[in-house]
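<instruction>
Derive structure tokens from the sequence

<record> Sequence and structure tokens follow
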Amino acid sequence: MGSDLNPTMSPALTDAQWERLCAFGTPVDVEVGDYLFRSGDAAYELALLETAEVEIVRDSLWWVEEAIITRMGPRTFAGELGVLNEQNAFLSARVIVPGRVRRIPHTQLRRLMAEDDELCDLILHALWARRESLREGPAALTLKLVGARSSRDFLALRRFAERFGLAHTAVEIDPADPPASAHRLDPDDLPVAFIQGEPIVRATPGMVAERLGLSYQAHADEIVDLVVVGGGPAGLAAAIYGASEGLSTVLLDAVAPGGQAAATSRIENFLGFPFGVAGGDLIGQASLQALKFGVRVYAPCEAVRLDPVGDLLHVTLTDGRVVRTRSVIVTAGAAYRTLALEHWDRFERSGIYYAATQLELRQVLNAPVVVVGGANSAGQAALYLAANGCPVHLVVRGDDLGARMSSYLVDRLVEDPRIDVHTSSRVVGLEGDAGLERVHIDSLGTVDARGLFCFIGAEPATGWLRGVDLDEDGFVRTGTDVAAYALSHWQSLGREPLPFETSLPRVFAAGDVRRGSMKRVAAAVGEGSSAVASVHRALAV
């Protein structure tokens, strides 16, 4: 019996390819009923089926019996994308015909991916395709998120799961409705995450990540070459270039990979995408690329402190864990600015958004909305929402729509009958009961709005950086921009800061967090990759 997966998910390997692949594995004989891996296993291994046959099973949950996802036979391999980032297994592989398998431990899998481009591409395509297929159907019940539709905490869980590409199911309920009792839930416990059927009440992305094996776990006495703090375009580019050039690399993000780019509905001026690209799609491919080169990606993992300790740098996380590293690239981006309005905090949980993607669109579909901001992100959001059935009021504080927005966006906004543009205007009030219902605009009056999308800029996420030279607005100074008074301790090194290097040796900054950066996706990618060149020079000294 062969695999019943399609050719992308289970490629037909030539004799030469299979022989090369087997060379990376350790042979093991298995019997009927044995498990190659079980749901919940930490950092499970890719398993090559020489003569044995297995079935991939979604284990039974308290509300549903087990489900057989597929059956696999000789000259195939069992595993999915989680084997690359050491995520806990969420399915089981049960032996149904005895025989021989070869286990490929993570270190050998990384060596295979680095040394054999042909096998790397075949395996990567298969693992990615399997994950995509598992996001629908019975496997998606292994992570079940339940919460109120308007809940900010529930939205945070869903955003985390979607940005990480996790197989999951999200169930929206009204806590006051009788159906809530079918989930055996107390409204005070929402949102709830069921992992393999076990509930986590008042769940947060951090709790879920810990249970799934996506939070940082140091190996014994581990020292890495590079830690990248922030998983936006600059951070992903830095991590990919660092890992592809031989640096052991850890990428940390306080939320999930993507940054503000992942929240952008459409990027139209990025090189190589003449028809535009959704920010989520771009980040998804970049994240897959990072896994290909062996970047260890952890989120939500927020850095709260950076300290030089001898010849090393210690990055401390919110839970007290410490990552020891030889160099750091700070690509922490910025935190969204808010409007100083009464009830803002309350409506952040039910009607105020800082992104316009499919996830947010589902909350306001076909309802009127207000978009605030005068830069490209606001224009792109307005067009995206209007194209999906939402009448839009675009509120711009300045009197010139083209002052901070690309001309192609300005032209489309002005011509779109579904969008009303209000320049020299401000949002001055919010109204609603359970959720946002109306917005007050000073130049217009009160308008119906089920969502307010806020794109008024951001503050640099540098409050955790101590001993690093910042400008008056909190952005990081780098290279020749580092203030003279901060250079005194460099004399012993016999050099000045390298390009993208901060006032602290072997600590670099790139992207939106850096003073003087362009605040564009393409520029951030360029800065992140260029910073790695300076890292190599600093580590070579």
User: Anything to note?
Assistant: The longest helix spans residues 521-540. DSSP finds 14 helices and 30 strands in the chain.
